[in-house]
Amino acid sequence: MRWWFKYGLKVPDPSTANLALGRAVHSALGENFAQKVDTREDLPTEGVVALFREAWENERDQTLRFLKSKPKINSCVSLHKKPKHSDSIGTLCGP
């Protein structure tokens, strides 16, 4: 059922604070790693912390926006019946 909502109906997985924090950490570390590949030196600690804070603010805002919007599934979709062909997905629900 989860697969159908995620891939069939393109409903995104709900975001959580833990996922947002992980994405922010990975973003900051990724920037540091990219810098290290180019220059063979790490960014200063303050720079990595600043990148993390920027990424965290962005992730936090996106997560809060997502949680407030609570995506809704159109009532025209039956939870028990799946279309036989992926081409018919567009005919089940409007935009």
Could you explain how this protein is built, in words?
This protein has 95 residues and is mainly α. The chain has one domain (2-92). The protein has 4 helices and no strands. Helix 2 (17-39) packs antiparallel against helix 3.
Q: What does this entry show, briefly?
A:
The protein is mainly α and 95 residues long. It is built from four helices and no strands. It has one domain (2-92).
Please tell me what the overall shape is: elongated
β-strand percent reads under 5%
Helix segment tally? 4
Uncertain segments of ≥5 residues (pLDDT<50)?
Answer: 75-83, 85-95
Mean pLDDT: 78
The helix content is 55-70%
The rounded Rg comes to: 20 Å
Span between termini: 21 Å
Total DSSP E strands: 0
* Run of helices and strands: HHHH
User: What's the domain count?
Assistant: 1
The largest β sheet comes out as: none
Structural class: mainly alpha
Layout of SSEs?
Blueprint: H1 2-8, H2 17-39, H3 45-69, H4 89-92
Main attributes of the structure:
elongated; 4 helices; 95 residues; single chain; mainly alpha
